Amino acid sequence: MKLPSVMFAVLVVTGAAQTPSGAPSTPAPNTVIATVDGKKVTYGEVEKYLRSLPADTQQKAMHNRKEFIREYALMLRLNEMAEKAKLDQKPPYSEYLQNARRQILTQAQLSEVYDNFPVTVEQEQKYYDENKARFDRVKLKVIYIPFSLSSTAADGKKHLTEDEAKAKAEQLVKEIKGGADFVKLVRENSEDKTSKAKDGDFGTFSRGDKMPDAIRAVIFALKAGEVSAPVRQPNGYYIFRAESFTQKPFSEVTAEIVTELKNARFREWMESTTKSIDIKYEDQQFFADPAAPAAAQGPGK
Length: 301
Fold this sequence. Notes:
Elements: H1 6-10, E1 32-36, E2 39-42, H2 43-51, H3 55-63, H4 65-84, H5 93-115, H6 121-130, E3 136-146, H7 162-177, H8 182-189, H9 193-196, E4 201-206, H10 213-219, E5 231-233, E6 236-247, H11 250-275
Antiparallel strand pairs: 1-2, 3-4, 3-6, 5-6
Helix pairs in contact: 6-11
């Protein structure tokens, strides 16, 4: 049976009539913010409920506080009515509650295990020393040569085809390796306005930064001062020059290291826990692969 849709309305706070800038500050937990059916409701009670909601819903609630309390009061009233009717003991609601409890306890156990994995400073330092390459940073300059399926732009400027852009990028790399000034070629050829305005400076990147894998593989294979072959991306070719390499200091990556160590321990724990479960698959027909062709069945089989 599908739950009545009205229940979902309780969990969604409308965004209308939002409080303008200068909204009231967060009150103390024991501050009484409303009285519902004669019962005083403190901010602490409401804040605990808020924490269980999605982040965007929490934000909307604080922008439209009266509407949120109205929804909260409605939820309390409906809960009271449901408990008096003993709906928590009536299928399918009892099953919903049981399954919800299982899911909450499952997440609680996982969180407790993860949060309580001990990580010492010595372990952090050891991980850093053994994985220094992970914390490499490279400062780049770039020349960007775009291509397009259309031969001309709206302003009448000619666009390069992919083959033309590739040929141009390869020619530029050849010139650079022959001694041409990289910055001069940036100014004359690059179509990335932001980096071109800074003589090709593209920024400093770490291995863990979000970027296409093809670019990551190329830039971290370079040596300082070395220029890459053209790297194709969906809209153009990039030519990178590695200006310098550094490493993030230990002090900047401790939080990242702790997360990595905990994740590794957690994966080991999950694998061990899963393997420790004794499962016997009794009904072979139930577990048969539905995509497999049915076996010929003779009489009595």
